[in-house]
Design goal:
Elements (H helix, E strand, L loop, with lengths): L3 E4 L14 H12 L3 E5 L8 H7 L4 E3 L4 E4 L2 E5 L4 H13 L4 E4 L4 E3 L5 H8 L12 H4 L4 E4 L7 H6 L3 E7 L2 E6 L4 H12 L6 E5 L5 H6 L2 E4 L5 H6 L2 E2 L7 H8 L4
Helix pairs in contact: 1-10
Length: about 260
């Protein structure tokens, strides 16, 4: 059996311009031909990477940092945020003038018509500022929310809401996830179906939300453009994503 390759998107599959390098696309195709299985592992919602997934012909993924997992196009795990907790966070954040964005597997909705922090962070993912929709977070399963605040304002949320995790992914935004919901827990659920062992997994990432995944996987590769904490725990550090880092890592590991 080949390896299970767990691929982060932003800064790993996609370069600093949010584009898929030709070298990465070619490396992924060669790795599949050599018997390795490809899976995306991302903090993004499924609708945010559907085109990329189809372009790469990948039908297995861990999304929302582990809250929504699909194996060969079939959902195998869903874990939404507790509605009462989410409402409490919404009310508290509103008092702090911190907007929220709510996401399920098909769309995202903002708590406010417009906010520059939402514009800045969502735009970095090549998406437009989401629209508002009355009652969305109360009427739908919400797998991930975003609270928009700067780093020095974040600790109050950790202190007040102990049953969820806040994971910073942008200068002005944190993911809100069910406690313990990580890409690492997603790996453990996924390999029960793929037949791989932990030793057969290789994680590729760059961000803070990749830390636990990289600690859990049998082997881990950090991109040179990654966060210093991510690079510190990686088994191997490859080149910058803009300099064919992913393809170079595949060659170094003998996957292609």
């Amino acid at each position: 059996m080949g390896k299970l390759l767990l691929l982060d998107i932003d800064g790993t599959l996609l370069n600093s311009h949010k584009e898929l390098p030709a070298s990465a696309k070619s490396a992924l195709a060669q790795a599949r031909e050599n018997g390795h299985e490809l899976a995306i592992a991302t903090g993004r919602a499924p609708f945010m990477f559907e085109e990329l997934r189809k372009e790469l012909d990948i039908d297995t993924f861990i999304s929302f940092n582990g809250q929504y997992i699909v194996h060969q196009q079939k959902p195998i795990h869903k874990e939404s945020l507790d509605p009462e907790t989410l409402e409490s966070i919404y009310e508290y954040a509103e008092q702090q003038d911190h907007p929220l964005v709510f996401m399920n597997e098909t769309k995202m909705v903002s708590s406010i018509d417009y906010h520059p922090h939402i514009e800045e962070s969502i735009k970095s993912l090549k998406f437009l500022h989401p629209e508002t929709e009355a009652g969305f977070h109360a009427d739908n399963e919400i797998y991930q929310a975003l609270v928009f605040c700067e780093e020095q304002e974040e600790q109050q949320y950790h202190d007040k809401f102990k049953t969820v995790d806040f994971v910073r992914w942008h200068r002005v935004s944190c993911d809100i996830l069910p406690k313990g919901g990580t890409k690492a827990s997603g790996i453990k659920r996924l390999i029960k179906l793929t037949g791989h062992s932990i030793e057969d997994t290789i994680a590729f990432g760059d961000g803070l939300n990749d830390l636990q995944m990289m600690e859990t996987a049998g082997y881990s590769v950090a991109m040179d453009n990654g966060h210093e904490q991510t690079k510190a725990i990686a088994s191997y550090i490859t080149d910058h994503v803009d300099n064919d880092g992913l393809a170079k890592a595949f060659k170094h590991l003998g996957l292609i």
